[in-house]
């Protein structure tokens, strides 16, 4: 029986048992097959599990990301949490820059305080955003069976991707956010009707929904957000979504100003308070998309296979 080491980290968390959970496996000798990685991710049953497959000169690391259902080319909190584990356990000398080789892209990671890792924000720079379909507020209200009056009619609704696609939906206030009550069937039927379900989408991935409002629970946070998705044939919510917030930052840079630096809260409705730090700018059509968060180490262990 073989064994492999792994770590559990709370990502985008200010305290333990907040943020989004992540399991990170050290598979630097590439012993696990794709089937085994998928089985482990299903057994762990977090939103994502990562596998560090190769160390290239202590600066570039090949990483694969799995949900309990399938492999994904890119995801936000797994990239942040995996970079934290690399810096904490795999580097003899911590550096402020890393690169993760993902299926979608090479992802640049920056760590402003590598020698104060447990308190440092870890940032990822996301790929250039793709601005896709727009939707009317009536389409969203009818398609998802939510009240039109809960939507912020002054802001547009659009699908954006920096590696994974999200439809960004503005809500009027926290009351509207708290009252969201989507059903699996309505969500799935809407995606299918728009060719955005994984069985009929161009990418093979289902588009997720990212709701935001300018009201926040805590002073100092600029937005409250929720991300809803279909996973394993059920409606799920994510506690903190770095990839979606990268799309949100691109949205803000397009509609709110050419330079943005804000703190976003997510997961509050789930009891998993998460804090995402967004900063970026756009110049001559080129976007700089940085999303960061803090990490809290929860446990380490050995997995037998």
From TrEMBL:
Pfam families: PhzC-PhzF. It comes from the Bacteria. InterPro entries: Phenazine_PhzF-like (IPR003719). Belongs to the PhzF family. It comes from Spirosoma endbachense. The active site is at 48. NCBIfam families: PhzF_family. Keywords: Isomerase. SUPFAM superfamilies: Diaminopimelate epimerase-like (SSF54506). One of its GO terms (molecular function) is isomerase activity. GO terms for cellular component: cytoplasm. This is PhzF family phenazine biosynthesis isomerase.
């Amino acid at each position: 029986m073989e064994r492999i080491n792994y770590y559990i980290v709370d990502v985008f968390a200010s305290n333990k048992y907040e943020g989004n959970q992540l399991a990170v496996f050290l598979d630097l000798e590439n012993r696990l097959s794709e089937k085994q990685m998928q089985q482990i991710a299903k057994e762990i049953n977090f939103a994502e599990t990562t596998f560090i497959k190769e160390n290239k000169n202590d600066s570039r690391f090949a990483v694969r990301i799995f949900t309990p259902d399938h492999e994904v080319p890119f995801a936000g909190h797994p990239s942040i949490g995996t970079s934290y584990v690399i810096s904490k356990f795999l580097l003899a000398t911590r550096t402020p820059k890393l690169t993760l080789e993902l299926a979608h892209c090479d992802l640049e990671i920056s760590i402003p305080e590598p020698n104060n890792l447990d308190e440092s924000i870890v940032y990822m720079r996301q790929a250039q955003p793709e601005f896709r379909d727009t939707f009317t507020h009536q389409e969203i209200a009818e398609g998802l069976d939510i009240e039109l009056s809960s939507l912020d009619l002054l802001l547009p609704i659009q699908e954006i991707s920096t590696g994974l696609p999200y439809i960004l939906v503005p809500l009027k206030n926290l009351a509207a956010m708290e009252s969201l009550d989507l059903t699996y069937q309505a969500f799935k039927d809407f995606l299918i009707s728009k060719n955005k379900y994984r069985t009929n989408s161009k990418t093979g991935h289902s588009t997720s929904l990212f709701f935001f409002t300018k009201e926040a629970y805590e002073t100092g946070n600029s937005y409250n957000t929720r991300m809803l998705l279909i996973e394993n044939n059920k409606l799920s919510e994510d506690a903190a979504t770095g990839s979606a917030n990268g799309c949100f930052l691109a949205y803000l840079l397009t509609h709110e100003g050419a330079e943005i630096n804000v703190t976003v809260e997510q997961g509050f409705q789930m009891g998993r308070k998460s804090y995402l730090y967004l900063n970026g700018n756009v110049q001559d059509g080129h976007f700089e998309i940085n999303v960061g968060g803090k990490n809290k180490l929860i446990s380490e262990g050995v997995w037998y296979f």
